[in-house]
Write a structure and sequence with these properties.
With about 120 residues, this protein is an alpha/beta fold. The protein has a single domain, classed as 2-Layer Sandwich (Nucleotidyltransferase, domain 5), CATH 3.30.420. The protein is built from three helices and five strands. The radius of gyration is 17 Å and the shape is globular. It starts with a helix and ends with a strand.
Length: about 120
Amino acid sequence: MTPLIDVVFLLLIFFLVATRFDDADRQLEVKLPSAEQAVPDVLRPSDLLIEMNEDGSCFIEGRQLDLPSVENVIRERVASNPTTQSVKIRADKRVTLQDVVSVMNICKQYGAEYSIRTE
């Protein structure tokens, strides 16, 4: 009976952790642009997720940041992880292209790889 309880307990922990990772990816409700050739993108623990809503505001870990603050966060992350830092941009499809390009430019400036998430 005890091994069965241990297995059930481990499964419960696994599903709680897996559910938490799924929620972390979707803190901001945005409508992603669609692409027919889109490939599922996996968010690694070292990746920095930047979410942008339709008015161009940037959110990192649920906190709204202005562009200079986003630049500081990217600079700090690249300094602590210089070779493999990547940034995932999850922007609403109604956001202006200039807002997304500004974030991409910051990533390029500090040497972080970036990608844009789509549906």
